[in-house]
Amino acid sequence: MIRIYNTMTRTKEEFVPLAAPAVGMYVCGVTVYDHSHIGHARSAMVFDVIRRYLTFKGYRVTFVKNYTDVDDRIIKRANQGGVSAREFAERFIAAERADMAALGVLAPDLDPKATEHVPQMIELIGRLVASGHAYPIDGDVYFEIRRFPPYGRLSGKNLDELLAGARVEVDERKRDPRDFALWKGAKPGEPAWDSPWGPGRPGWHIECSAMAMKYLGESFDFHGGGEDLIFPHHECEIAQAEACTIKRHDPDALRLWMLGTHYRNMIEWSEERVEEAARALDRFARLLRDATAVRRAATAAALPPAFAEFRPRFERAMDDDFNTPQALAALFDLVRALADARDRGPTATPPSAFVAGVDELVQLARVLGLFGRGAAAEGPPAEVERLVAARVEARTRRDFKRSDELRDEIARLGWLVEDTPAGPRLTPKGP
RNA sequence: GGCGGCGUAGCCAAGUGGUUAAGGCGGAGGUCUGCAAAACCUCUACUCCGCGGUUCGAAUCCGCGCGCCGCCUCCA
């Protein structure tokens, strides 16, 4: 049984899909007016892991994530750059897709754009106007929060509190300063669509609702993002933590770092934390690499008892509101057990059993989105191979001076050579 | 000011009423090794910000205090 924290009730509740095994997830996507930053990356990875885990548990997940491709900032920046809002948005949509792919985030099943769903939004706004929850004024349409008592419940605030300290821009036409625009009448030079209230464009909040309803029906299982899940966002020096920061790091290291903190907790950006994660990742990587030869020689047998306790631990952790730190702890313990088995040799643990254990590790790690690209191991260039062979020969002669020179030379070519009982081991050195 | 969250080892971080308080990084010692690296083994919080209280029993619940932080601005 999976238990998940529900923002509305502020408790963990049993997850009961509305139409099992189908599960609908809707995630509020980005407003594409700039590159992704580390905050987007975390949010995306968290949902990615939730999606992967639900799939692992046998659910058929439909994952929808929208693009908000019309908004004040997009229009403003597009105008500054002398391009159309559409062209401007498309550019950042492409960038966002590339960033997410680089992070190992699975692509959504559907990624609708706001601009392609204006008719649905108009229809939804029309319904809200008809039901008295919204009112048009001078080409704008506002949502009247007083007509919707639960407003604010999600964030745990009441209406008066919202008004108290806030400096809300006064717009005399609005019935209440806190009412927000569902439809914005067009100003000159802005993209516009025809509507019963005149030409204009959708305001915030409405697009998610419209697209979610279209693709997942009126009710669905998950709604993630800034609105329904109060995800903490690290304040991290965002200026420095944009796309370049993301690209500078190993995506698996970033993921390991992020999953080391529970998703509902705040996390502070730190270069050092990511480097620590990269070191931890090495333990996995080395084990996996050492296992490749064994895997070629033996096929997996049934999982031996020594490696069987980790999956239940992993699942127990993930079932409990996606407790990735606990799940990772189980994985690290599995790594240790496997490394120990490797060191003890094939007498203590038959190759087939070892391979079964490694497969188990890989399977579970992939549920967290780790090692998705299979570590992309490129072989060393012939020159390096030649030097390594020469070094082996020097060592058999016990010519350690020459041996160390060769090691330095190999290092200059970007490879780390280590001596193991089974012979030299080559590792490409990071940038 | 209002609302919400947090304070666990040197650092990061789980655990939220009851066996020896996960895991990672770092550190110490050991095994292995020509050296090194890696790996493995052992150790590294008798204690969970402070003070009271509830309880047979609390890091976990309640109150107060101290210290951080987020939100209340179209940043998802």
Written description of the protein model:
The structure is a single chain. With 431 residues, this protein is an alpha+beta fold. It folds into 4 domains: 1-111 and 221-245, Rossmann fold (3-Layer(aba) Sandwich); 113-205, no CATH class; 249-376, Orthogonal Bundle (Isoleucyl-tRNA Synthetase, Domain 1); 382-428. The chain contains 14 helices and 11 strands. The strands form 4 sheets. A 4-stranded antiparallel sheet has the order 5-6-7-8, covered by helices on one side. It has a 3-stranded parallel sheet with strand order 4-3-9, sandwiched between helices. Strand 5 (134-137) and strand 6 form a beta hairpin. It is elongated. The two termini are 44 Å apart. The model is unreliable at 161-169 and 226-241 (pLDDT under 50). It binds one RNA strand of 76 nucleotides through helix 1, helix 5, helix 9, helix 11 and helix 14.
Main sheet makeup: 4 strands, antiparallel
Reported CATH architecture of the largest domain: 3-Layer(aba) Sandwich
Which CATH first-tier class of the largest domain would you pick?
Alpha Beta
Low-confidence stretches: 161-169, 226-241
Question: How many angstroms separate the termini?
Answer: 44 Å
Instruction: Tell me the helix content.
Output: 40-55%
What pattern of helices and strands is seen along the backbone?
EEEHEHHHEEHEEHEHHHHHHHHEE
The fold-level CATH name of the largest domain is Rossmann fold
Instruction: Quickly count the helices.
Output: 14
- Strand residue percentage: 5-15%
Mean pLDDT: 81
| Structural domains: how many | 4
**Total strand segments:** 11
* Global morphology: elongated
Radius of gyration equals 27 Å
Numbering strands along the chain, what is their spatial order in the largest sheet?
5-6-7-8
CATH superfamily of the largest domain: HUPs
| Secondary-structure content class | alpha+beta
